Amino acid sequence: MKLSEVLIKPILTEKANAQSEKQNKFAFRVNRKANKLEIKDAVEAFYGVSVKDVHTIVVPAKNKTRYTKAGFIQGQKPAYKKAYVTVAEGDSIDLYGSI
């Protein structure tokens, strides 16, 4: 798998921001087929930091129902994979630099 296909986007939530400040962990949404070694290589290549540890989680799909004028609409949100990347001390990733 190409390194550009591994990382989809960073996860910017309050929990992820707190972990990045206190524990030097950063959260990313990644390709479902990517393994920990590919995720590590992609983060090191794109952000220029040394990665100490990678934890992955597959978030399961959820059923969703909405009530509209046309009646009930049922659907499903897709499953996706998250990766929590621990960066070595002294290194940091600036996720808000381009905003």
Question: Could you give a quick summary of the protein structure above?
Answer:
The protein is an alpha+beta fold and 99 residues long. The chain contains 3 helices and 6 strands, in the order H-E-H-E-H-E-E-E-E. It has a single domain, classed as Alpha-Beta Plaits (2-Layer Sandwich).
CATH topology: Alpha-Beta Plaits
Binned strand content = 35-45%
Head-to-tail CA distance between termini: 29 Å
**Average residue-wise pLDDT:** 92
Q: Tell me, what's the shape?
A: elongated
| Fraction of helical residues | 25-40%
How many separate domains make up the residues? 1
Question: Given this structure, which CATH class is correct?
Answer: Alpha Beta
- Low-confidence runs of at least 5 consecutive residues: none
For CATH, the homologous superfamily is named as RRM (RNA recognition motif) domain
Structural class: alpha+beta
Strands in their spatial order, largest beta sheet: 1-2-6-3
Radius of gyration, whole Å: 16 Å
The helix/strand order is HEHEHEEEE
User: What's the tally of helices?
Assistant: 3
